[in-house]
Amino acid sequence: MALLVPFEYEFFRNGFIAAVLVGALCGFIGVYVVLRRMSYIGHGLSHALFGGAVLSYVVNINFFIGAGLWSLIAAYLIHRISHRRWVGADAAIGVVTTSSFALGVAIVSTYRTFTRNIEAALFGNILGITAVDLWIVTAISLVVFVALLIMRRQLLFLTFDPEVASAYGIATGRTNLLFVLLLAITVLASTQILGVTLVAAAMVIPPVIGRYLTKRFQTLLIISPLIGMLCSAVGMYLSFYLDISSAATIVLTAAALFILLESTMILRGRRSKPAPLL
Amino acid sequence: MVDAHDHRPGDQAGSLHPPGVEEHPSAEFTGVPLIELCEVGANYGDTPALQDVSLKVWPGQFMAIVGPNGGGKTTLLRTILKMIPVTRGEILMRGEKLRKSSLERIGYVPQLETIDWNFPITVEEVISMGFFNNNRWFRGAGPEEKVKLQDVMTRLNLTGLGSRHIRELSGGQQQAVFLGRALLGDPQLILLDEPTSGLDIRSRDDVIHFLHEINHSGVAIVITAHDLNWVAAHLPWAVCLNRRMIAQGRPHQVFNAAVLRDTYSGEMVVFHHDGMVMIGERPHAPHT
Predict the structure, then answer these.
(1) Considering A61, A177, A262, B176, which has the largest number of Cβ atoms within 10 A of its Cβ?
(2) Which of residues 95-154 of B touch A (CB under 8 A)?
(3) Domain of B27?
(4) Is B19 part of a structural domain of the chain?
(5) What is the pLDDT along chain A (278 residues), one digit of tens a residue?
(6) ipTM of this model?
(7) Angstrom distance (rounded) from CA A57 to CA A68
(8) A164 contacts B132? CB cut-off 8 A
(9) Does residue B164 form part of some domain?
């Protein structure tokens, strides 16, 4: 079977499993990210993580520990600052994330000995995923999936009707903080695979595609991760056969699907009112 | 047409009560008030939004709060819901200090303008959010909850619309969806923030029909409203609020020129005709 040829290579097997896991994870949390209009936070957190990644290379500690701690702190700061009324949330995120990214760039320009690792952080290194990395990504994915499933009622209320959520006894501040921290560890798990620059796309495009397909929230929670998984799987195959960066191919696959659906909707809209397909 | 004799501008005959002094709405309301605001003060940001407001809501009562924009109507609802802290005074529920846990018996319907109508969510999903207090975590809807959901949808004429997107409904049906969500928590009191805002006459008629039906089942209802004529036509009790309590009573009593001048800081014309009260704006310039 020609389809199974790439699986003869361990690097592809590890990369494929990690990419599909991260595709599902980003697709799932991405539903809330998109509906809560937090795409910029996802983008910002991945850039903030770059500072932590570089720092952990310099002091020679595990990427997941160093960058993980760094991104949790960045997430907490973003959460705190974005609740200040006198500064807009987007500005607050901009201050934290660009400062962190700039710190990473400053360190890179000082220590020029780990260019390869920096490239991996920026653009992902999906084919360099080790068995240990795979276990860590699996564990993080499980934690985030379970936490989001448990919190799904609170999150739906907070996302759809934030004004009423507190009247129903939802601890809005705590739930928002927990969500941002879950987002931070999702970005952490995804950065090794997709890179700082492409993580946000994996979180945004699948739920946006899902919006074309359903008008039901619970269905979106199912199909968005499935779209993420599909794009990751197809992207990995294309990357293997076309010899193009895996992270870029995954995102481009998702983008192509988006363009296809958008075009279909535009064509349908000319004849009748476009409606979700499911 | 209104007969000239029915036009009583400046009518002072209504029951204009001093702030904090309340006439009992009806002999049928006895015992302990469901909600009691005792000289409550609240701020919106740094601006005082409520000052020394005292108000009783009785079990089964149906009242409207009217007043100008920024007059504290929404703030009053939000203080009852503990969404805005009270800076002075206290709020009691059935004679005891209002606690977070008491809120489970209070339903809230926000202004429809605050809803994101592009959010991918169906009628059934919105109404099911009303189960939140009974089922906060992972468990799916049980058979009893499904029956209750269908009952509420039937009661609000939403049968067969469960899988529709909320944007695909009429204004009255959209309001019914959020009423349904509030009803699922078996509330003793429902607070509605401007339920008729932006609705056409037909939809407003649907909304008042649902509200009366719910009220007749024993649920107290407090709404905020801008349309004084609609309040006068349909509601038994009105509260005029402009940060302070101006007056309260039956609409035909409190909707007089003096009270409305104090409430809105402007002149209004009040007509009485055939047992109805109608409020009109006084034109700034004479007609030519």
Answers:
(1) B176
(2) 100-101, 103-104, 106, 108, 110, 114-116, 119-122, 125-126, 129, 132-133, 135-138
(3) 4-115+186-281
(4) yes
(5) 677 888 888 888 888 999 999 999 999 999 999 998 888 777 888 888 888 888 888 888 888 888 888 889 888 888 887 766 666 667 777 888 888 888 888 887 777 666 666 777 777 788 788 888 899 999 999 999 999 999 888 899 899 998 888 888 888 889 989 998 999 999 988 888 888 778 888 999 999 999 989 999 999 999 999 999 999 999 999 999 998 888 899 999 999 999 999 898 888 775 544 455 45
(6) 0.81
(7) 13
(8) no
(9) no
Distance of CA B273 to the CA centre of its chain: 26
Q: What is the number of structural domains in chain B? A: 1
Residue of B nearest to A148 (CA): B138
B138 within domain boundaries? no
The CATH number linked to B17 is 3.40.50.300
- Residue B32 phi/psi, 5° resolution? -95, 135
> Which residue of chain B is at minimal alpha-carbon distance from A169?
B100
Chain-chain contact of B138 with A214 (C-beta, under 8 angstroms): no
Residue B175 placed within a domain:
no
Which residues does chain B have within 8 Å of residue A166's beta carbon, measured at their own beta carbons? 81-83
Q: Mind listing the domains of chain A with CATH numbers?
A: 2-271 (1.10.3470.10)
- CA A206, CA A189: separation in Å to the nearest integer? 17
